[in-house]
From TrEMBL:
Domain Cytochrome oxidase subunit II transmembrane region profile: 32-128
Family: Belongs to the cytochrome c oxidase subunit 2 family.
PROSITE patterns in the cross-refs: COX2, COX2_CUA, COX2_TM
Catalytic activity: 4 Fe(II)-[cytochrome c] + O2 + 8 H(+)(in) = 4 Fe(III)-[cytochrome c] + 2 H2O + 4 H(+)(out)
Name by which UniProt lists this protein: Cytochrome c oxidase subunit 2
Gene from which the chain derives: coxM_2
Any GO CC annotation of this UniProt entry: plasma membrane
Length: 274
């Protein structure tokens, strides 16, 4: 029975390695969210790809640590299980050298992770590091979270988005149209409780906090439909607070806005053709 527990702790690192190996494969897809079979869970935005790189780096560090500790525990148990009953026990008050090693090494690893992620974090969260195009063009839309939907406000064609609603603004619900191939910046707000804007295929996640206007940006190189969900428990209808981000060429976005403007300005009166 003693050897069983030693083998038990040897077994789980092997299972963990196997699961990490097969998780991203097409047969299992236990990994990142996909956007169809062609993406294989890859991030669909340049910033998301950098976030994935950080994830894999941290995953590698954690995996090595897990395997090392589990095998170390298994080795100690195996050594104790295979000792003869005549062997005398050895008592120790600890090792200062080992204590220094397992204190300093994790500290170095954590500082390394903190430093290596700073440029990615700054590019996503600090406006001074946003792509120059987003700062020049300003926000393209406002995304207002409310129980339990996403309301999108676009400025009138040719106008700049203002913090407060303007008479010519265009509105949509649960559907965001953005151009492909260039960074897009928008203002995120909430009309009631706290929500979280989460586009899993883009790896973009940002809380919407009451009273704040929070700038967010992303870039989608490939046209397609991408999921938007709320990642903050916001009430009974949280589960259905979903929307679609439609990435398409610039001309199609402008055509959509023109159609939205026509529908919004339609007064219901149709002139008879003589």
């Amino acid at each position: 029975m003693k050897k069983f527990w030693a083998l038990f702790f040897f077994f789980w690192p092997i299972v963990a390695l196997w699961m990490c190996w097969v998780a991203p494969s097409e047969d299992y897809r236990w990994w990142f969210p996909t956007n169809g079979p062609a993406t294989d869970g890859q991030a669909m935005s340049p910033l998301g790809q950098r976030i994935d790189d950080l994830f894999y780096l941290i995953l590698g560090i954690v995996t090595i640590t897990f395997i090392g500790t589990q095998f170390g525990l298994g080795y100690v148990l195996w050594k104790g299980a295979t000792k003869s009953e005549e062997t005398k026990a050895e008592f120790s008050h600890g090792s200062h050298s080992l204590e220094l090693i397992w204190t300093i090494v994790p500290a170095i690893v954590l500082v390394f992770i903190a430093l290596i992620q700073m440029d990615v974090w700054a590019q996503f969260r600090v406006q001074a590091f946003y792509p120059e195009e987003t700062m020049k063009n300003g926000p393209q839309m406002e995304v207002m979270a409310r129980q339990f939907e996403w309301r999108i406000r676009y400025p009138a064609p040719g106008e700049a988005l203002q913090d407060e609603a303007q008479p010519g603004d265009l509105y949509a619900v649960n559907e965001i149209h953005v151009p492909t191939g260039r960074p897009v910046k928008f203002n995120l707000r909430t009309d009631d409780v706290q929500h979280a804007f989460f586009a899993p295929q883009l790896r973009v996640k940002q809380d919407a906090v009451a009273g704040l206007i929070i700038p967010v940006w992303f870039e989608i190189p490939k046209a397609g439909d991408y999921d938007l969900v709320c990642a903050e428990l916001c009430g009974w209808g949280h589960y259905k607070m979903r929307a679609t981000i439609v990435a398409e060429p610039e001309e199609k976005v402008q055509a959509y806005l023109k159609q939205l403007q026509e529908e919004q300005n339609f007064d219901g009166v149709v002139e008879d053709e003589e």
